[in-house]
Amino acid sequence: MVVARRKLTDNKKTTRARPAKGRILDAAERLFAQHGFYGVSVRDITDAAGVDVALVSYHFGGKRELFTAVFQRRAELLNAERLEMLEGVRRAALPGVPTLEAIVNAFSYPLLERSARGGPGWKSYFALVAQVNNSPEWGPVLMTQHFDPLVERFIAVMREALPTCPAQEIYWGYQFLTGALTLTFAETGRIDKLSGGLCKSSDLDSVHERLAPFVAAGFRALCASREAAKPGGP
Amino acid sequence: MVVARRKLTDNKKTTRARPAKGRILDAAERLFAQHGFYGVSVRDITDAAGVDVALVSYHFGGKRELFTAVFQRRAELLNAERLEMLEGVRRAALPGVPTLEAIVNAFSYPLLERSARGGPGWKSYFALVAQVNNSPEWGPVLMTQHFDPLVERFIAVMREALPTCPAQEIYWGYQFLTGALTLTFAETGRIDKLSGGLCKSSDLDSVHERLAPFVAAGFRALCASREAAKPGGP
DNA sequence: CCGGCTATTCAACAGTCGTTGAATTCATTA
DNA sequence: TAATGAATTCAACGACTGTTGAATAGCCGG
């Protein structure tokens, strides 16, 4: 990415609102989400943050470490919230099991809610996750490292709710769910053009209303067709 | 991307199997799919192709044009095949309408089949599409330009098959479908680890068996819930 | 053998890349 | 106030970036 580099001979010692480390993280989050890891230079980031180039190496060790720091920053908070909601719907359904819709919502709602009303930083973060999730270079490392513990718990609850369903079906259903969810976070505006303005990528409330019914029905269909395929069916 | 650059003082004038232009396209396809546009240098590509650096500018005009050429190359063939299959299932169902499963299959099967058994070039191509589709920088331009005409036809047939369903539901359903499909193409291997080897990202036949039932059920659920929400329902 | 054309090679350009070491500033404590 | 250690600035390094113009090789019809 090449842009006119802002002159900053001014505002050098003026009272800076926030410390440099956070400013760098914010700028990196936004730019990495737009152009990817290699599409952004360290100078792009530090210029946008209004700090010196050397501070990236000083605070984070290097560009690569900055990238993972950006990815980590919001992951724990997010997963804690999702886990809490997941266990909440599980407890609320005892001694039975929660509906598939409730489980999917526990998985997706905290993300959609933050992306919709958490501010531009969160919006950028999820766009970054969307790119990472679909990247063979970064996906296996970063997604597995930061999200798999929660995903395993999610799948375990899903299996409780579908006790007769083969495990593979749950995993494939999860893959379809996360694919649909991450493309939503990318907010490329493609659906806006396709629908002639009828739908808007940024309308995450509409997604929230529709994702759980869509995915839950998909799970049921998956399990039903596989159970029917088993020998000795009903 | 930084790798040791191969010395090629040899094999300069030896009989070269295929012309340079195609070799460049193949190498670019593979490397762009792995690391993205900015993650690969022109020299990475030409070294992998065994040709001179200057040939990229000579044959394509520049790196950017090479990228779009890679993206274009297989798009028309693909869309022609999908359109033919789509119209085929439509005709076969006359005077009625095709099942949702058949429509989804016409949309996804040609892609899955090529990715599974079309050779490494096709596999790379779909991994590239997965990244582009989730990129705010490239997605709106490339996906819209090369795939939207087919998508519009696909959605039109979908609406014929669901005549009472509001248009928005079809568009959202399409977004979920394409998200699930493109993440599948990324083949990041994440589901392999999650499932402990039970599922394999590369097993596109399993995806083919499951995607249509999953998505068709999702569409039906979407339309049903929206019709029920209409005033004066049954 | 010639001229013309395309394809390829080579060398080099100006600019950008990530990183670093030394110098400087800042806030806090002794 | 002096000292300390962290935070920031500055200048620069060697390597790599995409692109280009001139030179060369190969081929085909005359």
Layout of secondary structure:
2 copies of one chain form a homodimer.
Chain A: H1 20-35, H2 42-49, H3 54-60, H4 63-73, H5 75-93, H6 100-117, H7 120-133, H8 139-161, H9 167-186, H10 190-194, H11 204-229
Helix pairs in contact in A: 1-2, 1-4, 1-7, 5-6, 5-8, 6-7, 6-11, 7-8, 7-9, 9-11
Chain A binds a DNA duplex (30 and 30 nucleotides) through residues 2, 12-13, 19-20, 41-43, 51-59, 62-63.
Please describe what this structure looks like.
Two copies of one chain form a homodimer. In chain A, helix 5 (75-93) runs parallel beside helix 8 (139-161). Chain A is mainly α. The first copy, chain A, is built from eleven helices and no strands. The first copy, chain A, is globular and about 60 Å long. In chain A, 44% of the residues are buried. The first copy, chain A, binds a DNA duplex (30 and 30 nucleotides) through helix 3.
